[in-house]
Amino acid sequence: MSFILGLILFCSGASYIAADFQCTQIPGKLKQIDAGAGQVYGVNDDGNIFLVTSSLQQVPGQLIHVSVGPAGVWGVNNASVVFKLQNNQWQSVTGLLKQVDAGGNQFLVGVSADNSIYCLKQSCVTSKASLVSFSLVDGKLKYYSCGSAGCWGVNGDNNIFFRQNVSPEACVGSQWQQVDGRLLMLEVSTDGFVYGVNEAGNAFRRDGISANNPTGTVWTRLDFCATFKHVTYDSGFLWLLSRAGDIYRCNNQN
What count of other Cβ atoms lies within 10 Å of the Cβ of residue 135? Predict the structure, then answer.
């Protein structure tokens, strides 16, 4: 495991300078955040939904998890009901999930309360129908995320897996490949980057990802002085939530 020793997030004030990132704290607190397709959404401990820019702009509705990407804006509430944002209104669809991810090429993935894995193919995602049929994916995961680099997940033991041969109309894929390391959660960005946090709250980036090697080669630890519970990345910005829910937007300087 390699380390970026110069990447240090200084612990005082609201703006931070580091070797690879310049970070700014956004006012407010969130428990979960997701960036994709040029937008960022999040939810707080009360289930309130926010569009995140340089501030938090509340969106009507109540969710426990929200995701944005090429598949649109999706979320689930505390009853595991799945919703899609259409014409600025939340429309429920058939299916019960605890976590969803909209980062795939207009297909949706997610996991249920018992860690079963599901996906919704592109043609169902792009329709306006509320009656849809999720496809069951073999295995068990507690967190699942897709992007242009493919689909990645973590199971209940924090083991990391990559799903092979996933496509918009064949979202089930073919088989799992275990990847070295252990993470609490991870996110795959629209543009193919993979970031995650481990049980200790350390943030990591997967390096060496390419078309010929979609699982990459090494996890690089981002040596911030803080610890985190959630991370997401899109369009050159790394978004991090501290364990207290503080929000950081970090601009990649490379």
Answer: 15
Largest CA distance in the chain: 51
Q: In whole angstroms, give the CA distance from residue 109 to residue 113.
A: 14
What length does the chain have? 254
The residue among 149 and 171 whose pLDDT is bigger is 171
Residue 126 CA to residue 138 CA, distance in Å, equals: 24
Residue 92, CA atoms < 13 Å, CB-side half-sphere: 12
pTM for the full model? 0.92
Handedness of CA 147, 151, 155, 157 (dihedral sign): negative
Phi, psi of 123 (to 5 degrees): -65, -30
128: which residues sit within 8 A by CB, 6+ positions away? 86, 91
- In this prediction, residue 254 carries a pLDDT of 59
Q: Are 101 and 108 within 8 A, CB to CB? A: yes
What are 86-140's pLDDT values in tens digits? 999 999 999 999 999 999 999 999 999 999 999 999 999 999 889 999 999 999 9
